[in-house]
Amino acid sequence: MKPQIIITGAGVSGSSLAIRLAQNGFRVTLVEREKFPRHKLCGEFISPECLTHFRDLGVFEEMRAAGGDTIFKTVFYAPGGASVTVPSKWFDHGSGGALGLSRAEMDFQLLKRARNLGVEVLEETQVVGLLWEREQVCGVKVRSKSGQHSELTADLTVDATGRAAVLSRFANRQSGQAGKISQRIASSGAQSSKAKLIGFKAHLKNAQIEPGVCEMYFFRGGYGGLIQIENDLSNHCFLIKADVVREFGNNAERVFREVVFQNKRAAETLRHSQTAFDWIAVSIDSFGTKSLAPAPRLLTIGDAAAFIDPFTGSGMLMALESSKIAAQAILLNYAEVKQIALAYEKLHRQKFRTRLRYCSLFRKAAFATNLTSIGVRVLSMSSLARRALAQATRN
Fold it and tell me: What is the pLDDT of residues 328-356, one digit of tens each?
């Protein structure tokens, strides 16, 4: 009999892994703290490669029909207005372009697909601890919305809780020296930011952005992106140094109007926009690879495993790719659960180590206003250089 698997977190990585496992006859329980659909801080840019994954997951038509915007190019704007363009077709594998779609809609479609395939879905259920047997994780302790506590056992547990990496934190706290298997994980690309960063997101009305375009803006202390999504709304998400935010009393709207608008193009496009809901904010302390197997019989995927710089537009792609290689490791080794972590670590290193190294270099330029201005001008002269740099964020 195939093992019982528990996945915590029903975002992109968690739901897509649940779908892939259910498609192959595994017994899967998906535990989610929130009730879907729900808003989540994200740029909501779905790169063209993601659409290939959606086909495999059986949700391609649903995603295309959800009302989002097909994005054919991304334009990067230096503070003074100089720009450089990256066409979506450079990453297209017959998917018809990138897609702008809210996380509320996309994650809901993935969760619905998982449920339809027989995955047991527990929404509004919070994981409050891990279960242990002979120094190995054997499930999770959960609390329902009503306050009821219960225990869920599993042969393999997967942490898909995003940057919070909730289960990894429990493992570090509860296991002590357990999880030695993870100590040889490559740490290249994993580094703390020199300055703490804050991410902000809002859906906007009346943003003057052309359909089919993603716009990226560089400004003092950070960068941001703008795309159209469904329901005549646009997503604006930006990442900025925390000390700049503090200058404006931690007021997101002031930072938006007084710092983001220092970018000439952003001011033109966003001047008459209004927020459709309050700004969402989250602090970001590190990038790169984290612990992939923090304890025996516990894996991490998605942002819980590795976090890539948002300006690459490949965050959701990494979530889908990490769930795919986790599924491969499980499918090939489920008869010997101990081997799953070894196979997954190897696949993860092969897939992501190089791109994370490149992105750690690009990050320095993204937060240096003078460098972004020079870089945009230089790259505008060579499509070959632009394409090479763009591909480096993928391969």
Answer: 999 999 888 889 999 999 999 999 999 99
Separation between Cα atoms, residue 5 and residue 28, nearest integer Å: 5
**Phi, psi (rounded to 5 degrees) for 96:** 90, 20
Distances (CA, A) of 345 to 21, 181, 291, 349: 18, 10, 9, 6
**CA separation, residue 44 to residues 12, 105, 167, 201, 296 (Å):** 11, 10, 25, 10, 34
How far, in Å, CA of 133 to CA of 139, rounded?
9
Cα separation, 337 vs 194, in Å, equals 39
- For residues 349, 29, 110, 351, the Cα torsion angle rounded to the nearest 10 degrees is 10
Q: What share of the chain is helix, strand, coil (3-state, %, to 5)?
A: 40, 30, 30
C-alpha–C-alpha distance, residues 260 and 353, integer Å: 32
| DSSP string for 162-179 | GGG-HHHHHHHHHHTT--
Rounded Cα distance between 96 and 65, Å, is 13
∠ at Cα 84 (78, 85), nearest 5°?
135
The pLDDT, as a whole number, for residue 385 is 85
**Is the distance from CB of 2 to CB of 113 less than 8 angstroms?**
no
Closest listed residue to residue 263, CA positions, set 87, 76, 43? 76
Q: Which of 242, 210, 219, 201 shows the shortest CA–CA distance to 78?
A: 219
- pLDDT tens digit string along 296-327? 999 999 999 999 988 888 899 999 999 999 99
